Amino acid sequence: MTQAPERVRLAVKAYKICGVNYVFEPTRHDPGRRHPRKKRVADDETRFLKSWIERPLLTGAVMPSGKFLAKAMAAQVDPREPGPIVEIGPGTGPVTEALIARGVPQERLVLVEFNPDFIELLRKRFPLARVIQGDAYRIAELLKDKLAEPAAAVVSSLPLFTKPPQQRRDFLDQAFTLMSRKAPFIQFTYAVVPPIPERGTGYTSTASNWILLNIPPARVWVYRKI
Ligand SMILES: C[S@@+](CC[C@H](N)C(=O)[O-])C[C@H]1O[C@@H](n2cnc3c(N)ncnc32)[C@H](O)[C@@H]1O
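That is the input. Now the predicted structure with S-adenosylmethionine docked in place:
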């Protein structure tokens, strides 16, 4: 009897937690095994599933973001603007990679992550970026005196809906204190409603079209100070 790959066993466990009984049917072909890029994607999926099973509310998703969503997040950043780019909740780094592909040098990246397993991976994967472990809901204190100049953008993947609206709003306000005047605060969400209340005072917000090629489909919201 063929043993299911670890990520499949974890996926079956995750389904079970969600009340779905999935039965693994072995096939001889596991594309995750041979091709180096596919293997890396499969390994990241395994890490994510593990993290979601251990801490579902903190991880906030069962899979890392796909390349289309990551690219849509990065597209909101203008690499010509001066200053560091703060990424919050980078996980295994798909958005980080998209930011680098967009032309942001690793040296300008400040990655803020809570999960120590992801921290270790990020330090290996992006050796020139600054990787900071901590709670992003205390971002102002966490990055106090750590940014030499105001950030050109804050790019967040936090699972904001696990927190009450006031705490999300407070998180946005803290992020604004770290950024230059016109800089974007970028956040994706799978939800149909805005991740931070849309009609707040002191900021504007816009949403992208649905990125249907991501699983699950997501939208990218951009908030700016007025
Ligand atoms: C939905 S995942 C997104 C990961 C990655 N950016 C992606 O798009 O695949 C959310 C990430 O935020 C991190 N996270 C959740 N709460 C956090 C907090 N309070 N402070 C810092 N990171 C946090 C999780 O560990 C996880 O890596």
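Strands lie at 85-88, 109-113, 130-133, 153-156, 185-189, 203-207, 219-225.
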